[in-house]
Design a protein that fits this description.
Chain B: One of its GO terms (molecular function) is ATP binding. The complex is a heterodimer of chains A (561) and B (341). Chain A has a domain of 222 residues: D-Maltodextrin-Binding Protein, domain 2, CATH 3.40.190. Helices cover 36% and strands 15% of the residues of chain A. Chain A is built from 22 helices and 21 strands. In chain A, the strands form eight sheets. A five-stranded mixed beta sheet of chain A has the order 5-4-6-17-9. Chain A has a four-stranded mixed beta sheet with strand order 11-14-10-15, sandwiched between helices. With 341 residues, chain B is mostly helical. Chain B has two domains: 50 residues, no CATH class; 228 residues, MetI-like (MetI-like fold, Orthogonal Bundle), CATH 1.10.3720.10. Helices cover 72% and strands 0% of the residues of chain B. Chain B has 17 helices and no strands. The longest helix of chain B is centred in the first third of the chain and has 38 residues. Classes of the chains: A alpha/beta (561), B mainly alpha (341).
């Protein structure tokens, strides 16, 4: 399941987040358990690791408090930093260069156009960390298609970034087979060699346990949904529209706002927002597809809400209020570009797109303004939202990497995980002063070169606890964090929240084609009854077996909520 | 093709010298085949040496990978071992189970049907166009005009499919030039890019735009080998433009056309890949899935390797049957085809 819309919106650095407040909740819960299923014919580690077994592996947590956030984290939101820190006041979190000067090749998704490999930002980062990184960027929108081919080969890059929504099919088995155990370097107090990594929330590390070993450096994220419906506040104001408050209101507004003759459509593909409106269990991680309802585990695809969400999205397409290029899907290009060009008024994407678009447009159009509107429930009013995983992008090191390379990798992660208010943070997030950003009126402001270069590369190799810090656009920071806090208040957790679960491979391909089916249904090429048929096939081909497997896992671990 | 004229004449010159040196060679019919092979080998060794790199390439990248098809009879999991090849030895054998799954899969039959429909449309609508274009270009006398026309026609071949699809989208899409112009005049609903019914024509059209120009090269080469004397003689005898084309040009092209047709039919199950993958979401899986994308989707994207290998194997076997049939038909029509016994 790929929230394509999310990927398309350039999840830029430091914008996925999570809250330290809920750290350790996931781990606290249950009985010890390892490879709960035991039924796998290959005898490989499927299942999950939690409780006492996880405690043995997880790194110690040592909080870091360089600067107190202006908006403290609440309801699973990020912490918000709105004030800039003067260069002279920046702290140092990495006093000694930890890298050995070795080389690392990193395969990573990239949304947008990657800069040249030898740009000043990369050079400065590599120099500061002491590791020579070579980036192998692949288009983030179609990353799932590349990843399988790369992992099936015998020669994989030293470091591989894997977004959680790409953990489909046998990719989790590939991860267990191909990537190194970081436990010997990080478990318990060992992490204290890397102080910034020690400040990563435990619930994020919990997500990094794959096949019984700590394999990933996670990207900590807030558990509030990361897909926000975003609208052009400037154009709404100009036209006198008010923000819709229910699905019906949205549809009638959309019909009114669409003016195809002037090349303006009300919205882009809204499927992922529809899932939120109708309270469908999250689609970003397979374990979150399940939830205990009236004593029985139910999968998202079996629910009435799932069908309702598809039906509402279908209505939007049928009413021709969706941009025609969005109908074409991936071939149609980037939703965010249509949004900033004013061809669509509402699109859904990762909330970090808010800052991305505003900062990009600030150099071009002065009147561009946007915001995320609150997700409403199926009848208007308050929604019921489901928590996403507290980390859903993972960075792994190849098993074939040498000890030195692993240490270099951790040095890199430690550097990039520097918190707000440090020199390391400024270099990682803003680049080289004078080249990538300048300080104007005490605020850092990215230059055009900075916008192009300081984007997408060192984003996934280590991050501090979830936060939003855009001192150059304090209103955007406030907008994002407050949206998360409002939505967080409506957010509940499904049964397997916080755990990283590897399904037995015999069932791992069961649900592969549902996303495709959804896309066909909303575009009117297939019917809701086709989904129902697919669900009943899914059940008979193993869905029910998978349910029993998850049930056993639940019995052993205890629920997260 | 490999019999170029120069070495052949040289070796022919050598042969008579050698033959007498083999005493009684012609009197021993039993050994003559072998002997002739030996002689032929020595005669052609330079040529054979020259083919070695190509043969090696085919061997390494085409023949050896064929062995990997055994995973079609397994439940192959590349992650059972560090090395994907070793994993073949460790994966369980399950006989024809994957094939049973494939034949029971409606999506597979959709892909087969689409493949044949696209192939047929390409054959009817695409195949003749390079021939017509070659005739057209050939009739242009001024070399400058000719060079420019050729360059313009070749150009789209070098565009990637992403670019081609984007260009088409900008023109024929729901927000493209045509749709917007029609909207200005009160007509709604033009969108060629997302119409599953018309998709087969759309992709054929895209293929024509992209590759028809490139396809003329081989025909132009054949045309350039036709002696001008023939045309002049025919013209002297009073043959008009059409007669000359019918009796001189087309017969000259016939072997090439037959050869390409055989090759095309043998390749029928390969109708394109990226083109369909790119437009998969736009028209849906049922309209756009062809065998190659089906194999890729299941194998690489969904990591169901054995299943995909089985589907690929089916494609290979059917493809082989098609080549043999097409070649046979070519022989019956008196053409050389791809190979001859």
């Amino acid at each position: 399941m790929t929230p394509n819309a999310a990927s398309a919106s350039a999840p830029s650095r430091r914008s996925f987040l999570a809250s330290t407040a809920v750290a350790a909740v996931a781990v606290g819960g249950g009985m010890p358990l390892l490879a709960a299923c035991g039924g796998s014919q290959e005898g490989r580690k499927d299942g999950t690791t939690s409780g006492k077994d996880a405690q043995k592996i997880l790194p110690a947590f040592v909080a870091s408090s360089v600067v107190a956030p202006d908006i403290p984290a609440k309801n699973g939101s990020s912490a918000g930093f709105t004030k800039a820190i003067a260069t002279a006041d920046l702290k140092t979190s990495v006093p000694k260069k930890l890298g050995s000067g070795g080389k690392l090749t990193i395969l990573s998704p990239f949304w947008g156009t990657p800069p040249k490999g030898d740009n000043p930002y990369y050079t400065a980062m590599n120099e500061a960390i002491g590791v020579e990184v070579t980036w192998q960027n692949q288009d983030g929108v179609t990353y799932d298609q590349k990843l399988g081919a790369v992992l099936a080969g015998s020669n994989i890059p030293d470091v591989v970034v894997v977004p959680g929504w790409n953990l489909m099919g046998r990719i989790p088995s590939a991860i267990n087979a191909k990537f190194a155990d970081l436990g010997p370097y990080l478990s318990g107090d060992k992490v204290k060699d890397y102080p910034n990594l020690a400040a990563v929330p435990t619930e994020a590390w919990q997500r990094g346990i794959f096949g019984g070993q700590l394999r990933a450096v996670p990207f900590p994220a807030p558990y509030v949904t990361d897909i926000a419906p975003m609208y052009r506040r400037d154009l709404f104001k100009k036209k006198g529209y008010s923000v819709p408050k229910s699905p019906d209101e949205f549809l009638s507004w959309a019909k009114e706002a669409t003016d195809a003759k002037s090349k303006v459509w009300a919205c882009d593909d809204m499927k992922w927002t529809a899932f939120n409106i109708f309270s469908v269990y999250p689609g970003s991680d397979k374990a979150l597809w399940w939830n205990l309802r009236d004593g029985k585990l139910v999968n998202r695809i079996e629910t009435e809400e799932y069908l309702e969400a598809l039906e509402w999205t279908r209505k939007l397409y049928a009413a021709n209020v969706v941009h025609p290029d969005a109908v074409s899907g991936k071939a149609g290009g980037d939703a965010r570009n249509r949004f900033t060009a004013g061809q669509v008024l509402v699109y859904n994407g990762n909330i970090s797109g808010w800052w991305g678009s505003v900062s990009e447009q600030a150099t071009q159009k002065s009147d561009f303004d946007m915001a995320a509107f609150d997700i409403f429930g199926p009848d208007g009013g308050a929604p019921t939202l489901w928590a996403v995983q507290p980390a859903n992008i993972f960075t792994f090191v190849s098993k074939t990497a040498s000890e030195q390379q692993i240490k270099d990798f951790l040095a890199l992660c430690n550097y990039c995980a520097a918190p707000y208010g440090t020199k390391e943070f400024m270099l990682t997030a803003y680049g080289v002063e004078g080249t990538d950003y300048t300080i104007k009126n005490g605020l850092p402001s990215k230059t055009e070169q900075g916008v192009n270069e300081v984007n997408g590369a060192y984003d996934y190799t280590g991050n501090p606890a979830p936060y939003v810090a855009y001192p150059d656009f304090p209103d955007v920071t406030r907008g994002i964090v407050e949206w998360q806090q409002r939505m967080g208040a409506f957010t509940k957790k499904t049964s397997f929240f916080g755990l990283t679960i590897t399904e037995p491979s015999r069932w791992s391909n069961l649900a592969d084609n549902f996303e495709q089916l959804e896309d066909d249904v909303v575009r009117g090429r297939k019917k809701i009854s086709d989904v129902q048929q697919a669900v009943s096939d899914w059940k008979s081909k193993g869905g029910d077996g998978l349910r029993d497997w998850y049930q056993k896992l639940l019995d052993d671990t205890g629920s997260a909520n | 093709m490999s019999h170029s004229t120069v070495p052949r004449s040289r070796s022919e010159a050598k042969t008579p010298e050698k033959t007498p040196a083999a005493p009684g060679g012609e009197k021993q019919p039993g050994r003559s085949g072998k002997l002739r092979f030996g002689l032929r080998f020595r005669r052609d060794r330079t040529l054979l040496l020259m083919t070695v790199p190509a043969v090696l390439l085919v061997l390494v990248f085409n023949y050896i990978p064929i062995l990997g098809n055994v995973v079609a009879f397994q439940d192959y999991d590349p992650y059972l071992s560090e090395n994907g090849f070793v994993a073949i030895l460790e994966s369980p054998w399950i006989g024809f189970e994957q094939f049973e799954r494939i034949f029971a899969d409606a999506a597979f039959w959709h892909a087969v049907q689409n493949t044949f429909v696209f192939f047929f449309l390409q054959l009817v609508l695409y195949f003749p166009i390079p021939i017509l274009l070659a005739l057209l270009i050939n009739s242009v006398v001024r070399p400058r005009v000719r060079a420019i026309a050729q360059a313009v026609m070749y150009l789209p071949h070098f565009f990637s499919w992403v670019l081609v699809v984007t260009v088409f989208m900008q023109i024929f899409g729901g927000a493209g030039i045509i749709a917007q112009t029609l909207r200005q005049h009160g007509y709604e609903g033009f969108d060629l890019m997302t119409n599953p019914e018309l998709f087969k024509y759309l992709v054929t059209f895209e293929t024509i735009w992209k590759d028809a120009g490139w396809g003329i090269i081989v025909f132009l080469a054949a045309l350039s080998s036709v002696s001008n004397d023939l045309y002049e003689a025919a013209a002297m005898d009073g043959a008009g433009r059409w007669r000359r084309m019918w009796h001189i040009t087309l017969p000259a092209l016939r072997p090439v056309i037959a050869l390409l047709l055989v090759l095309r039919v043998g390749d029928a199950l390969t109708v394109g890949f990226e083109q369909f993958l790119l437009q998969r979401q736009a028209v849906g899986v049922d309209a756009s899935d062809v065998l190659d994308t089906y194999v890729w989707w299941n194998g690489i994207r969904n990591q169901d390797f054995s299943y995909a290998a089985a589907a690929g194997l089916i494609k290979g076997v059917v493809g082989l049957a098609l080549v043999l049939t097409a070649n046979k038909v070519a022989h019956l029509m008196g053409e050389q085809g791809v190979y001859k016994k």
